[in-house]
Amino acid sequence: MELALTFEGDTHLMNILGRMMPALALAALPAGAALAEPGLIIDLGGKFDKSFNESAYTGAQRWVEETGGDYMETELASEAQREQTMRRLAERGANPVVVLGFANASTLEAVAPDYPETTFVIVDSVVEHPNVQSIMFSEHEGSYLVGMMAAMASDSNTVSFVGGMDVPLIRKFACGYAQGAKATDEEVEVLVNMTGTTPAAWNDPVKGGELTRSQIGQGSDVVFAAAGGTGVGVLQAAADEGILAIGVDSNQNYLHPGTMLTSMVKRVDNAVYDAFEAAEAGNLQTGVQVKDLENQGVGYAMDQFNADLVSDEMTEAVETAKDRIIAGEIEVHDYTEDDSCPAIEF
Amino acid sequence: MIFPDAIQIADSTIRLATPLLLACLAGLFSERSGVFDIGLEGKMLVAAFFSAAVAAVTGSVWLGLGAGVAAAMAFALIHAVASITFRGDQLISGVAINFLAAGMTVLIAQDWFEQGSRTPALTGAARFAPIRLPGADALSEVPLIGPFYADVLSGHTILVYAGLLAVPATWYILFRTRFGLRLRAVGENPAAVDTAGISVARLRFSAVLICGLLCGLAGAYLATGLAAGFTKDMTAGRGFIALAALIFAKWRPWYALGSCLLFGFLQAVSNRYSTIDLGLFEIPNAFVLALPYILTVVILAGFVGRAVPPRAGGEPYVKER
Questions:
Q1: What is the mean pLDDT of residues B242-263?
Q2: Nearest one of A35, A10, A11, A9 to A23, comparing CA atoms
Q3: Span A301-309, mean pLDDT?
Q4: Residues of A in contact with B274 (CB under 8 A)
Q5: How confident is residue A8, by pLDDT bands cut at 50, 70 and 90?
Q6: pTM score
C-alpha cells in the first residue's frame, strides 16, 4: 500500500502531467495488463471509525487478500484537503478513485472533468458526469427492517432514534425506521432526536448519551443510532440503562453484547470491493448504482452477539418483509425523494 | 405526567451543568487574577483524552483522573508562561491551546489505539460509577422531596458532587482568605499588589494552575463520567459555553452555579422537546440552544445589570522601570 505523495505544485502543471500520465502508462505497459492501481480516499472520521469508513477499508483489504493486488490509500485530515487529495490520487494514476460520503459531491463535480481518463466512484451521493460512478444505498429499506425489529422487541410500545447532523440522509434513516415500526404496530410511538445542525454533531457522544436518557425517560426501550461518533455515546447509554440499541453502517453488535438488538448494515465494503474488482476486470460501469436489499447492499446484522435477543418470530417477520420489499409489494418511502415522511414529522 | 418529566429534566440538568460549572469556575480563578482564558475548551479536551487513555490502559479511573488533571495543568502552564512570563497576548495563547489540543489528542489517540482517534470503550473500574446518596432509597417514597433527593441529587458520579462543592470552596477562597483577596486585587490593580511586595507573577501562575486543575476535572468528567471513552472534539464547544456562563455570572462563584444550571437546563429542555409549544406560538429547538449566547450578549450589552470584567484582565503586567 502506498500513500499519496505530499508535494505542492502549480496545479496547472499538475493537471497537464495528470493528463499525460495515463497515456504514458498505456504506452509503457503491454496490452491486457492492469493499467492502474485503484485508489481509496478515507473520509473525515477516520479509517477505524467502527462504522462507515472502516467498512470501506475492510472492503479494500478483502480485495487485497483475495486478489493479491495493491491499491493507493490516503486519509483526509480536514475538509480543505478534499480537492487536493482527489487530484493527487488521480494524477498519480490511481484508477478508479473511490471517495466516501456525500460531502465530496461538490468537490468531485469540479475535479472529475479534469481527469477524463480516470473513473471516480462516489459513495452516498450522485455526481452526474460521464466518468463517475455514483453508489447510492437504500438506507430506508434497511432502516425499515430494523424498525420492525425494534417495534417487536419493545415492551413499552415506544422506540426511538438518535441522528447525528440533521441532514436529509439521516432523515432518510429515521423515516425508514419509523415506517418499519409503525408497519408492525400502528400504535407504537417513535421518538426522533437529532444531535445538532453542524458537523460537530457527529462527534458528541455526551449529548448522544443525554438524548438517549431523555428518550428512555419518555418510555423508549429500543434506540437506533445513526450518528457516527455520537452513536458510541448512544449505544453506551443504552447499555448502561439496560435498554436495547441498534447500530449502524458496520456491524456494531459486538460493542455491547446483550443490549445490541442488531445493526443496520450498509455494505460500503462490498461497494468498494466491487468497484475495485470491476475496474480490474475493465468493466466498471459509470452512472448511478443502487445498493439495496435485493443486492445485499443494506440489511440487518445477525451474529453470536445478538442471537439470543432476536426471536424466531422476529426473524420470520423481517424476512417476509424483506422479500416483499424486494418484490415491490411493500413500498418504503424515501425521505430524500420529496423531503417528507408519511410516518413521522421532523 | 408533568412531575416525572420535571424530575428527569432536573436530573439531566445536573449532568449537563457539571462540566460547564467546573470549567466556569476554572475560568473564574484565571480571569479574576487578570488572565483571560479562552483555552478552557482545549484544556478540557486534553483532560478528556488523557483521563480516558490512562483509564483504558490501566483500568483505573483514578489514575485516569490524575493524568487528565496533569495534562490540563500542563496546558495551563503553557498559557501561564506565554501570557505572564513572556507577556504574550492572552487571547492568542488561548486560541493556540485550543488548536493544539484539538490536533494533539486526535494524533496521539490514533497512534496509541488505532481506533479512529478514539480510546477503547471504558468499562467497570475504568469509569466513574454513579453514587447512591445515603438514605436515597428510604426517602424515595416521601412525596415531592423524596423523588427529588433520590432521582435528582442522588445517583451521580463523584465529580458532580466535587463540582457542586467547588462553588462554596471557590467563594470561600476568593472572598474569605488572604490568598483570595490578593488574587482579586491582582486582577483589578496589579501595581498596588506589587507595591505591597507581593509577586504578581506568582499569584497569576497559581490562579492559572487552579484553572488547569478544574478544567482537568471537567474534561475527565466528560470522558470517564458521562461518556465511556474519548472521541475526537468531544467537548463540542462546552468550554465556550462555560465562558459565556462566566460572563453571565459576572465573575462570581454563586452566580456561576446559577448560570451553569440555567444553561444546563436549557440544554436538557432542548434535548427533551424538539419544539416548545407555548399555546400561541412555538419556540424552535435551535432557539433554546442559542439562548445561552443570546443571554450573554444581552448581559454584556448592559440591558440586564452590568457585567464588569476584572479591570486588569487581558493585560500583561509590566513593572515600571
A1: 93
A2: A35
A3: 92
A4: 192-193
A5: very low
A6: 0.84
HSE-CB at A136 with a 13 A cutoff on CA atoms is 17
> In this structure, is residue B206 part of a structural domain?
yes
Q: How many CB pairs under 8 A join A and B?
A: 80
**Which ipTM value was assigned to this complex?**
0.85
Of the candidates B131, B133, B137, the residue with the CA atom closest to the CA atom of residue B158 = B131
Each residue of B102-113: pLDDT tens digit?
999 989 998 898
Contacts of B296 (CB under 8 A, 6+ apart): B244, B245, B247, B248
Domain tally for chain B? 1
Proportion of chain A in helix, strand, coil states, percent, rounded to 5 = 45, 20, 35
Quick one: what percent of chain A has pLDDT higher than 90? 70
Domains in chain A with CATH codes: 11-137+269-291 (3.40.50.2300), 139-266+311-338 (3.40.50.2300)
pLDDT digits (tens, 9 = 90+) for A198-233: 878 888 899 999 999 999 999 999 999 999 889 989
In a domain, B182, yes or no: yes
Cβ–Cβ of A232/B227 closer than 8 Å? Answer: yes
Q: Which three cell numbers stand for residue B24?
A: 466556569
Residue B295 located in a structural domain:
no
Give contacts of A47 with chain B, Cβ < 8 Å.
116
Which pLDDT score, from 0 to 100, does residue B69 have? 97
A283 and A261 Cβ atoms separated by less than 8 Å: no
Where in the sequence is the domain holding B109, given as residue range(s)? 2-239
Instruction: Give the rounded distance of the alpha carbon of A136 from its chain centre.
Output: 9
Average pLDDT over residues B199-222: 96
Which residues neighbour B2 within 8 Å (Cβ) at sequence distance 6 or greater?
none
Average pLDDT, chain A: 87
For A143-176, write each residue's pLDDT tens digit.
Answer: 999 999 999 999 999 999 999 989 899 999 999 9
Query: Which residues in B lie closer than 8 A to residue A200 (C-beta atoms)?
Result: 233, 236-237
Closest residue to A203, CB basis, from B114, B226, B236: B236
Task: Annotate B173-212 with three-state secondary structure.
Answer: HHHHCHHHHHHHHHHHCHHHHHHCCCCHHHHHHHHHHHHH
- Measure the CA–CA gap between A17 and A2, rounded to whole angstroms: 20
Give me B185's grid cell.
Answer: 486585587
- Chain B residue with CA closest to A228: the answer is B231
Q: Is residue B234 part of a domain?
A: yes
Complete DSSP assignment for B64-113 = HHHHHHHHHHHHHHHHHIIIIIS---HHHHHHHHHHHHHHHHHHHHHHHH
Q: B264 in contact with A at a CB cutoff of 8 Å?
A: no
Collect all residues with Cβ–Cβ distance below 8 Å to A269 and sequence separation of at least 6.
A55, A56, A58, A59, A62
What are the cell numbers at B262? Answer: 440555567
User: Residue A202 has which C-alpha cell?
Assistant: 457527529
Predicted confidence (pLDDT) at residue B168 exceeds the cutoff of 80: yes
